[in-house]
Write a structure and sequence with these properties.
The structure holds two protein chains of two kinds. Chain A is of the alpha+beta class. Chain A is built from five helices and four strands, in the order ααααββαββ. In chain B, a hairpin with a 3-residue loop joins strand 5 and strand 6. Classes of the chains: A alpha+beta, B alpha+beta. Chains A and B meet through helix 1, helix 2, helix 3, helix 4 and strand 1 of A and helix 1, helix 2, helix 4, strand 5 and helix 5 of B.
Chain lengths: 177, 244
C-alpha cells in the first residue's frame, strides 16, 4: 500500500481548472459587452451628425455667390489695378521737382547750355562770363545736398574751359544721386 | 529506448482535446473575435466619426465665410463699382493705349506751351516691353520737345498729372531742343482665380484714397466719353448723384 496516494488531489486540480474557466468566461462576456456598447454608441453618435443639411446650405450659398461672380471679378480687378497704381505712384521719380530745384540754383548771370537728368545722376553744362558766378553755382549745388533737397552723393566738376577770346567760362558739373 | 514522442493528430484527437478543454476554448475564441472586431471594425469607425466631426466644423466655418461674402457682394453697388473700374482702367489700361498716350502728350504740350517734335514710340510684343516698377509693362516714348527749359519742365509736370499713368525716366534740356524719355504704363488683367471661400472685403480706405488722388489727374478719356466724376464712396454706400 502506498501512503502517498492523495485521493483529494484530482479534485483540487479540477476545481482550479473550473475557476480558470469561469474567469475566462467572465472576460469573454466583458469583451462582448464592450464591443456591443461601443457599437451602439458609435451608431447613435453617427446618426446625430447631420452632414447632408449642411452640405445643402453650403451648395445653396455657393450657387448664390456664383450668380454674383461678375461683381466679384470686377471688385478683384479694381483692387488689383489700385495696388499696381499705388506702386507706380510711390516709386516714380519726381523729375519736375528735381529739375525745378536745379534750375533754381543757377544764378541769373549763368547761362544753362544743357541739363541731363536720369534716375542715377544729373549733368549740367553752363557758361558764364565770371568765375564768381560759377563759384556761386557750385555752392548752390552743394547746398542741395546739405539741405537734403535732392540726395546727392557725389558732386563733380567735370570740366572748366575758358574761351580766351570771349572771356567766357564753360563749366560742366555732374552729380550722382 | 525510443525517446521521441509520436503524436497522432486526427479527428479523434481533436475531439478529445476539445471535449477536455471546451470550457476554455470557447471563451478564448470569443475574446479573440471581440478583440478582432475592436481593432478591425470599431476603431476605424471611431476614427471616421472624429474625422467627420472635423469636417462638419470646417463646413460650418466655410458656411460662415460664404454668408459674409454673399452679404458683402450683395451690398456692393454694381454701377459704382463699374465706374470705378472704368476710371482705374484709364489710369492703368489693360493694353497699350496709343490714343491715350498721344492725347496725354498733346494735352500736356498745349498746357506747357511747348511743341512736340519727332518722337519714337517703341511698340513691341508683350514679352519685349520694358518692365520697370514692380513688373508693370510699359511703352517707351522718346519725345523731342521744343520750348524753354521751364516750359519743358511744366510739360513734364503736366504729363505726370495726366492719365494714363506715365513716368519720366530721362530728360535732356537744351537751349535748342530737349528730349524727354517717358514710359507709359499698362497691365493686362491677370487671370483671376476665383476662390469662393476667400473672404471678400469691399474697397478699403487706402484704395479709395488712391482713387481720390487719381480723380485730381487729368483724364482725357473720361472727358471725351463724358463719364462724369468718379464716385469716391465705397461701392457699398448709397449711390451719389452724378451725371453719366
Amino acid at each position: 500500500m502506498n501512503s502517498d496516494i492523495n485521493l483529494l488531489f484530482g479534485e483540487k486540480i479540477i476545481s482550479s481548472q473550473k475557476k480558470r474557466a469561469k474567469t475566462i468566461r467572465i472576460f469573454a462576456g466583458v469583451f462582448v459587452a464592450i464591443v456591443g456598447v461601443l457599437s451602439i454608441a458609435i451608431f447613435m453618435m453617427a446618426r446625430s451628425q447631420d452632414f447632408s443639411s449642411l452640405k445643402k446650405e453650403q451648395d445653396s450659398l455657393l450657387h448664390n455667390i456664383r450668380l454674383l461672380s461678375k461683381k466679384q471679378a470686377t471688385l478683384l480687378l479694381v483692387e488689383e489695378r489700385v495696388r499696381n497704381i499705388t506702386d507706380i505712384l510711390i516709386k516714380r521719380e519726381d523729375y519736375y521737382r528735381i529739375i525745378n530745384i536745379i534750375l533754381g540754383k543757377v544764378p541769373t548771370n549763368v547761362l544753362i547750355e544743357s541739363l541731363d537728368v536720369d534716375k542715377k545722376e544729373f549733368s549740367l553744362k553752363v557758361s558764364s562770363t565770371s568765375l564768381s558766378f560759377v563759384d556761386e553755382l557750385i555752392n548752390n549745388l552743394r547746398d542741395i545736398s546739405i539741405k537734403s533737397e535732392i540726395p546727392i552723393t557725389v558732386l563733380t566738376l567735370d570740366s572748366l574751359v575758358v574761351d580766351t577770346k570771349t572771356g567766357n567760362y564753360s563749366v560742366s558739373i555732374s552729380a550722382d544721386f | 529506448m525510443d525517446t521521441d514522442t509520436k503524436v497522432n493528430i486526427n479527428l479523434e484527437t481533436l475531439r478529445f482535446v476539445y471535449s477536455r478543454y471546451k470550457e476554455i476554448i470557447v471563451p478564448v475564441f470569443v475574446i479573440f473575435v471581440a478583440l478582432l472586431l475592436l481593432v478591425v471594425v470599431i476603431k476605424p469607425q471611431i476614427e471616421d466619426y472624429f474625422r467627420s466631426r472635423e469636417e462638419i466644423k470646417l463646413t460650418h466655418k466655410r458656411i460662415g465665410v460664404l454668408k459674409r461674402n454673399l452679404n458683402q457682394l450683395s451690398n456692393i453697388n454694381e454701377s459704382v463699382l463699374d465706374s470705378q473700374l472704368l476710371f482705374v482702367k484709364s489710369a492703368l489700361p489693360f493694353s497699350k493705349d496709343f490714343a491715350g498716350v498721344l492725347n496725354a502728350v498733346s494735352n500736356s504740350a498745349d498746357f506747357a506751351g511747348v511743341k512736340i517734335g519727332d518722337f519714337a514710340l517703341a511698340i513691341g510684343d508683350l514679352e519685349e516691353t520694358q518692365i520697370t516698377i514692380s513688373g508693370v509693362p510699359s511703352m517707351n516714348l522718346n519725345l523731342g520737345v521744343t520750348g524753354g527749359m521751364r516750359n519743358v519742365n511744366d510739360f513734364i509736370y503736366r504729363l505726370g498729372q495726366t492719365l494714363p499713368l506715365s513716368e519720366v525716366i530721362g530728360v535732356r534740356l537744351d537751349r535748342a531742343s530737349s528730349t524727354v524719355q517717358i514710359l507709359f504704363y499698362y497691365r493686362p488683367p491677370p487671370p483671376l482665380v476665383s476662390n469662393e471661400t476667400t473672404p471678400i472685403t469691399p474697397l478699403g480706405k487706402s484704395h479709395l484714397m488712391v482713387i481720390e488722388k487719381l480723380s485730381s489727374f487729368i483724364n482725357i478719356a473720361s472727358e471725351s466719353q463724358n463719364l462724369g466724376e468718379v464716385p469716391l464712396a465705397s461701392p457699398s454706400a448709397p449711390i451719389p448723384t452724378f451725371p453719366f
